[in-house]
């Protein structure tokens, strides 16, 4: 199953790139960036205390957008992986994202398009709750993975801002790892056990939702060599608790120092009432998730 999904993703992305290279060049615009960010601190016999640390983050971002007459096809691929090492401890994962987005649109007016939007999201490496232990994964490759396909309309008043509203959106949540599926992780149905604690039915590996999705994007230069990007995503499941709207809000400031050196600040807020998180008091339930990272590193522009 995992192998088939990986092959499908590779085929979709490769087909996009090959098409971009074989079609008339003037209809395609491609750009991307690959980079490596890091922060490091070393302590030896430091009286005030502390520990040496190393924070690393690698990323790849690529876009291939097509426009011809009344049609457009926008594609983006994002991969990010980060780890921190404190003293002699094992590396701790701080960031992990693999995301593919594709939108096909037909022009209705100069600024409005009918749209068919596809997205795929997952992570690549095992994730852990390091406050508990670093041996029992709470996430894995394709556990979870989210696939959405929606029909709607996109409004693009300028090159800076766009919003896509898809009132007919199907979303599938995959939890391929059976141990996580048996726990009911990420909203799938958990396993069933008899009175002796013996499993009599596996937890489900897939959960289907049908609802409405809104995706708003901003990409603008707010000052010389300072770029701001924001992606705000909402999803409501018509089939179960439609009032509980899922939120995913990503923001990033990138400050270009020179052609190969940059600094960035990233913040992400997530709320999904199907994801249960245990707090410091041992209470389990949906929680607002927040992540912030500052990084300085090397980058190379892809064309």
Give structural attributes:
mainly beta, Outer membrane phospholipase (ompla), Chain C, 12-stranded antiparallel barrel, 2 helices
Can you give me a brief rundown of this structure?
It contains 2 helices and 16 strands.
Q: pLDDT below 50 for ≥5 consecutive residues: which ranges? A: none
Gap between N and C termini, in Å? 34 Å
CATH architecture: Beta Barrel
Rg estimate, integer Å:
21 Å
Order of helices and strands: HEEEEEEEHEEEEEEEEE
Q: Please estimate the helix content.
A: under 10%
Number of domains: 1
The assigned structural class equals mainly beta
List the helices and strands and how they pair.
Elements: H1 2-22, E1 28-41, E2 53-68, E3 71-86, E4 92-107, E5 112-122, E6 145-155, E7 161-174, H2 178-182, E8 192-193, E9 199-201, E10 206-223, E11 226-237, E12 246-256, E13 261-271, E14 276-278, E15 284-286, E16 289-302
Antiparallel strand pairs: 1-2, 1-16, 2-3, 3-4, 4-5, 5-6, 6-7, 7-10, 8-9, 10-11, 11-12, 12-13, 13-16, 14-15
Provide a descriptive summary of the structure in words.
With 303 residues, the chain is mainly beta. The chain has a single domain (2-44, 54-302), classed as Outer membrane phospholipase (ompla), Chain C (Beta Barrel). The chain is 9% helix and 58% strand. It has two helices and 16 strands. It has helices spanning 2-22, 178-182, and strands at 28-41, 53-68, 71-86, 92-107, 112-122, 145-155, 161-174, 192-193, 199-201, 206-223, 226-237, 246-256, 261-271, 276-278, 284-286, 289-302. A twelve-stranded antiparallel barrel has the order 1-2-3-4-5-6-7-10-11-12-13-16. Strands 8-9 form a two-stranded antiparallel sheet. It has a two-stranded antiparallel ribbon with strand order 14-15. Strand 14 and strand 15 (284-286) form a beta hairpin. The longest helix has 21 residues, at 2-22. It is flat, with a radius of gyration of 21 Å. The protein starts with a helix and ends with a strand.
